[in-house]
Amino acid sequence: EIEEIFEIRRLLEPAAAAIAAKKMTDTALEIMDRAIEAGISASDADDFTAFVVANATFRRAWMGQVPNTQLVAALARYIYHVQIIRLVTLSQRTVREDVLQRLRAIHDAFQSGKADRVSALFKQHVDAAVLAYRSYRK
User: Using CA of residue 93, residue 28, residue 77, residue 104, what is the dihedral sign?
Assistant: First the structure.
């Protein structure tokens, strides 16, 4: 079931992110930038709860730029279905550092308005989440 959910996310998130890239606001970019900085601080301090909150703040900011409410609702449903996996994988410092690097690249792509680049980065982001999950399962 988890593998199937990741497959759905891999289809939906890049498309939604490409839409968000075309609608991105300076306010959302600022929120995402602050969320990355908060994530860095939280990871450095091994404050797992703060890291998860920062990650969720980043997600809410970009998803808030998607005008299709049904797409956002579908994404939210599948993202929250794998929350327990996220809680386990993000407890590992190497996974957190990898996530932060990808979030910075995603932010920069959003800032440049390159929808194709944003979409490709989201595919990589979901693929990395799948790999972290599979590594955890071993």
Answer: negative
